Amino acid sequence: MSSAPTTAANPLRDRRDRRLPRIAGPAGLVIFGITGDLAKRKLMPAIYDLANRGLLPPSFALTGFGRRKWSTAEFAEVVHDAVREHARTPFNERTWDQLVSGFRFVQGEFGDDDAFDRLAQTVQTLDEQRGTGGNHAFYLSVPPDAFPVVLRQLARSGLSGRSAEGWRRVVIEKPFGHDLASAQELDRVVSEVFPPDSVFRIDHYLGKETVQNILALRFANQFFEPVWNAHYVDHVQITMAEDIGIGTRAGYYDGIGAARDVIQNHLLQLLALTAMEEPVSFDSDALRAEKEKILAAVTLPEDLSLHTARGQYAAGWQGGVQVRGYLEEDGIPADSNTETYAAMRLDVDTRRWAGVPFYLRAGKRLGRRVTEIAVVFKRAPHLPFDLTDTRELGQNALVIRVQPDEGVTIRFGAKVPGTAMEVRDVTMDFGYGHAFTENSPEAYERLILDVLLGDPPLFPRQKEVELSWQILDPVMEAWARSGRPETYMPGSWGPPGSNDMLALDGRAWRRP
């Protein structure tokens, strides 16, 4: 009997479970920093949601490593509470019972040889009893200064070495260093323990559905790409605004600041995806190669004092609540120069983008929480209307909303109903929540699953990291020589210098 044809008309193929290529094989995940906020709010719930969606194998094992003197049962209670509070999918007893049977906890310090020997024994026992097959990923949800000691312990205990039948991988959370030199040193330490194809650098923004949709928007549609260039695009604005302060992150944030925290990674990745050429395919090497070409083509303005801006939020009222200024936050030195707002102009020296400025901004205590990419088009070369007919007409724009309210908005001119010819801006909206019945998976779900599958396209490799630091380092050096950041009021959209930066080019920030 001949096999069924593999055509779109084949109902057997159409009914195939779309999850099949995305179900992980036997594997275990070890999380260092399991007691931290990221693990509780994101990692544990993501693992449960993957299991609840049928994307983890029955043999999956989760091992926590931490200083707390927990039994495995106590660890399971912590995971249970985190799942109940933060999971995206409903709680299912069958899913939980299957998942919890693979939980283990190892107590110890990062420098404790005995603890890592116990961890190695735990992993071996899971292979024998749970059927994880020698496949284990090690997730470093720890401060960057702890990376070297954990990596060396993994090497010393034999945990980093590939087993005869399985794989070993390491997951590293940003920041990937604090400048180019430290990023290169971190890579040297990682490379001594794991080969490049086993290193997964997490930038959770790349796991967001809307970020991935940039590629679908550009390359799956015919009518965007012909105008996606300097002939039609006036400029691009990439914004990541938060309406909160630093909270309890003083120990991490001070000395890092907005530029290192999100522009070096998140926003430069968004720039690369927006500006890149079409890859020959969407495998990891082709996608990364195009992003790297764009990052290598990014140039800084000659006068950084005019084309960058930085600020610190002051004390004041926001949302009807009196909030503290950055220098009044717990744990922040009174003379700190760390910026809570950063903005800069970048240019991309390619034929497609010659003369098109890319404006990036990120900050805390701003008007509202929003991340978006706004591609602002040039005005029509000729308008056959009276000036009064188009006085309320702005520039066309395509806005990709990354968060919240994920979707795409197109702004264009339309005639106002009535007897006069009056043209005014209107918008067309696409929202994920309205267009699809499926809920968007959380970014960490996609990324953890990709680690277990060994699927690397959404993970930046070392060259991307280094190119990003080469862009940012001169800005940070210039700021270090230029005194204190400007202050700005909470609930505003940043310091005056940020508006001046765009006004110098005859442009203005759009109001998200």
Question: What secondary-structure arrangement, pairings included, does this model have?
Answer:
Elements: H1 11-14, E1 28-32, H2 37-52, E2 61-66, H3 72-86, H4 93-100, E3 103-107, H5 113-129, E4 136-140, H6 147-156, E5 168-173, H7 180-193, E6 199-202, H8 209-219, E7 233-241, H9 250-253, H10 257-275, H11 284-297, E8 298-299, H12 304-307, E9 308-313, E10 316-318, E11 321-323, E12 341-348, E13 357-363, E14 370-377, E15 397-403, E16 407-415, E17 423-431, H13 432-435, H14 443-453, H15 462-480, E18 486-488, H16 496-503
Parallel strand pairs: 1-2, 1-4, 2-3, 4-5, 5-6, 7-13, 9-18
Antiparallel strand pairs: 7-14, 8-12, 9-12, 10-11, 12-13, 14-15, 15-16, 16-17
Helix pairs in contact: 2-3, 2-14, 6-7, 7-15, 10-11, 10-15, 11-15
Active site: 266
Binding site for substrate: 204, 208, 242, 261, 364
Pfam families: G6PD_C (PF02781), G6PD_N (PF00479)
